[in-house]
Model the fold of this input.
Amino acid sequence: VTQDLHDRLDDLVSDVSSYVVPDARTAWAAGARRRARHRVAVGAVAAVVLALLAGAAVWLPHTLDPAPAHPDGAGVDGYPARVMKPRVTRDLPDEPGPMAMVYDGPDRRWWTASADGHTWRVPGSDSEYTASLSPDGRLLGYLAAHRSYVVHDLVTGEMTRFDIDGAGSGDAGARWSLLPQTPGFWSPDGRRLLLQTSGDIGEVMLDAQGTLADFGPAGLAAGWLDDHTTAWIVSATAAHPTQLVGVDVGGHVVSRVDLDLSRRVDRSLDQWDVTVSPDGGRLAVDDDDDDDEVLLMSTSDGSLLTSRALGVSDRCTSSWRTGLPLFVAGDGLVSLTDESVTTFDDEAVCVVVASDALDGERYPGIGRGAPGSDWLVARPLPIVAGGVLVLGAVLLVVRRRRRRLAPTS
Amino acid sequence: VNRGVDDFEAWVHARGGALARSAYLLTGDVHLAEDLVQDTLARVAQHWRKVGRGDSPDAYARRVMHNLAIDRWRRRSVRPPEVLTDRHPEVGTAGPDVERRLVLRDALLRLTPKQRVVLSLRFYEDLTEVQTAGVLGCSTSTVKSQTRDALARLRTLAPALLAELTEEVPS
Done:
């Protein structure tokens, strides 16, 4: 069968070579052209790929790289407009640089966000125990593993541990036991942190030198009137109305101001309802019982400056911006005038922002893009779209050339 | 470079006729066969520095030509087939031999390109099934099935000419 068919095919093509004459010179020239085109195409594709890679390296967010510490040790200079859900969970490195805010994540841990929106989880933290960020964003205080209170210098990486155990430690004889669900307050100069504890000692104070001292005025801690004076709200008695009491770092009362507050409001106050502004000039009082109204009062004479219905019951923040307190509402942080400050992809209930951050620039997201524009729209999408267009154009040209050079059928 | 051109030309001079005959089997037309040969030679020339060093230019050219023949069919929607001429002097002018060749040529043209390629490799180039599969980059079972289908179709299209071909296909 094979030989028979072979013979018939051979017979069919026996005279073909007289009619089909290969042209070696032309073929060689065509081969040379093909070689050149191939080299050009390879070079072009390599250039496009390199350009895309270079663009990606320059413009796309380096989510796995920690932000460098500020070279001159300065504090945070802005805050993110949006805190995106991290694609990868990363623990806070030793020297990530100053942070803009600390907030509670869905995993019941504390998370930090830098000014340009990079996020890290605070290892060993528990969102039940409030974390605190110094005004310049350099010092982060939090309860670590329910054993010790840590002040982490985010620029130098230095960690100072204080012998404060949490309520979950199970150590009944502990002298210091941090209260859950209570705010901490950094002094305006970032040298001291006021915390509230249970047990024999009501309050403790940490300073930047790593010392810890008991500190025991009665009342609700509200912040700092200046670098050396803490602010306390003392409930009304038969002898006096509700008072704002100033206590110096040695525990001595240095000022008393009667507040223009009703007895009803006085009775409803809790630890989240009173906050003094970073400049010490204003006191915000959250009236939970009256349409969640916020009262702004003068710390110098106790008068009511203004009030506004907020409609938010739990503030869980001691942050201020441009003289107004901030609140967590909806999907993020808002001002008293309902202006959105920062939105969170993951729900955040408690947000503490460094006051210097709120005095700085509002960055649109990951990367230091132009303020006011959404980073997702402003940067990667045009880059990706441009890359795809370039690649598409190259492929189209190559395909058209291939078609043109394709043999006639 | 000159050495390369000279070697290439010498190889084309030696193998051009065989390539032309194979190309004709695959296309059924001298003009299309000439195009196919030139395209094949251009690709061989493109890689001559590699393929010309060893003894592989023949195998490489065979692989390129047969795959190009299939590619041309795949591109048929891009460029419709052209009818170049009704006359086929390459098969002769008159007589029973001419008639027989025309019948075989027409039958071959009515096979699918892959069937035609398999028949050319198996029964004209005398490659084994394994070698044919290697040229086409497919499995031997595909070669077997394509061969079986091609022979069956040939028997249908040219029963008088190929009646003596049996079902059995040698490996």
Summary: Residues 129 and 140 of chain B are 6 Å apart (CA to CA). Chain B has a mean pLDDT of 82. Chain B touches chain A through 66 residues (CB under 8 Å).
